[in-house]
Amino acid sequence: MSVTLDLSRTSAPAPKAPVNLSGLTRAGLRQALIDADICPPEKAKMRASQVWSWIHHYGVTDFAAMTNIARTAQDAMAAAFTLARPEIVERQVSNDGTRKWLIRTAPGIEIETVYIPDVGRAGALCVSSQVGCTLNCTFCHTGTQKLVRNLTAAEIVAQVQVARDDLGEWPSPKEDRRLSNIVFMGMGEPLYNLDHVSDAIDIISDNEGIALSRRRITVSTSGVVPQLDALGTRTQAMLAISLHATNDELRDVLVPLNKKYNLEALMDGIRAYPGISNARRVTFEYVMLKGVNDSPDEARALLKLIEGVPAKVNLIPFNPWPGTDYECSDWKTIERFAAILNKAGYASPIRTPRGRDILAACGQLKSESEKVRASTLRKAEQAAA
Known about the structure:
It is a single chain. By secondary structure, the protein is α/β, with parallel strands linked by helices. Helix content is 34%, strand content 17%. Helix 1 packs across helix 2 and helix 5 packs parallel to helix 6.
């Protein structure tokens, strides 16, 4: 017989953290100001517009910096809300200029965010949507780490803010941006956190704030088919598919989600994605695994699978991690694979591995931080013995 101990009468509730205004949509911000009696409803739209500009265009973290807002309103907002950035636990810079931040947004909640220069128009930020992952893709180290929880919109937007702080991009530049693209390709499956991802995209793309075009925001999914239409309708983001195999038997192994939503269902969902066109192509991501999925026959099977879909194919050299059984295809094999796709009219760039020396490459996120924490824990245990 099992017994559950009820501590509800003896444990005091944890104090509620103040709301970070950075994670609220325009509508949410207006309502928050009304609910906190910062301003009456008839003035909330104007006040919210002022606050929005200070947060998302100028990047301020102190209400006292909002010089066109009365001191009494500044103090009231400071008492009710926060603009604080999360803690940067570690910042690393690769030999190739890639930057990686280990960010702690709450006790026990750590995520990694990577800025890759010379990607997209100028540079791309790879953001996480969950702490950990549930997908268990066998070639991906990130996928071996257990899911802790979804990130909030504020925690997603904070990753962009941290990168822009470091890159010196406040106020939001109209031209010559260093951070020109956002890719939801970090930790987690974005379509399992669509509400917060959608709100974050609304915030990031707003023309009076960070002002990144939705066409420069890409959401990558392993194939949560029922959410594809909602993703396109709600966000108008560019779609990327973590594909990696051309038949169900192999994809069941590489991407276990395929057992739930097979390739036929996935391709049907992709063909129905809102806004898909030659100007808004789908990106298929295909990791190159030696002797697994890299043969000319696989390249031809890939062409057959995506036939008729406005698309490009990113070929990703496998990034090794400790304990993996996979190896990266050799360069000639990758080039031969790309040539077959190119000949059929599909752009198929080979993604140059970036940030491998700081474990910031595709599929490597958070592994190094977990290793460091484990090492620190062992040292502490030894010292206490």
